[in-house]
Specification:
Number of strands: 8
Structural class: alpha+beta
Distance between the termini: 21 Å
Strand content: 5-15%
Number of domains: 2
Strand order of the largest sheet: 2-7-4-5
Order of helices and strands: HEEEEEEEHHHEHH
Largest sheet: 4 strands, antiparallel
Radius of gyration: 18 Å
Length: about 230
Amino acid sequence: MIKLSFHQTSSERMIRAASTVIFDSLASSGCRVAPLSELASNVQYGYTESASLSDVGPKFVRITDLKAGHIVWETVPHCKCPNPEKYLLQTNDLLFARTGATTGKTLLVKNPPMAVFASYLIRVSPKVGIMPEYLYAFFQSDSYWVQIVENKEGSAQPNVNGRKLLSVNVPIVEQQIQQGIAEFLRIVQARQKGDHKPLPALPMPLQKVGRIVSLIEKADRASQLQL
């Protein structure tokens, strides 16, 4: 597993491990891959403005607001944006940090308030037939991070632009498998929060993934107890 330059929670590490096993298994099965440009569209850079703690306009999501797979909306500042329509966040938008230490970090937006996103973020939208949760799962895996690390530009301030982001190769699978992967990782995350639901079975060619992830969970729990 490649090392990232920013801190990850235990839950994030487990999701990353599970996602990596899933997408490594897809790669081993000979699954067809295609650039992200075939699966997503509407690449857009965010809005340039200064953040304000006063309620001067919509919420203003910055890179630092992408925390552990979610946004704490109560702590997000505002900004002046007379015409926010172009930058308004919608459910199932995917946001990417495009510069700095967290380059490549992603967020799947769900049920946002009136909010726009800042210029150091990139937004893309899944195309018809592509589940946003499936893409988000891929963006947690080493299969994604290896490509992001290779594509970072510059040494003092690494970054990935929209063109390079769209060139990242993603496995293409039928929607049933996309749904299975999304549900599997939802349960993995729930188990990290104390839920005792069993891991669901995955369709071919991922039928062995559940057992592997279960072993990783046990090893992780054992290491936590030793701390």
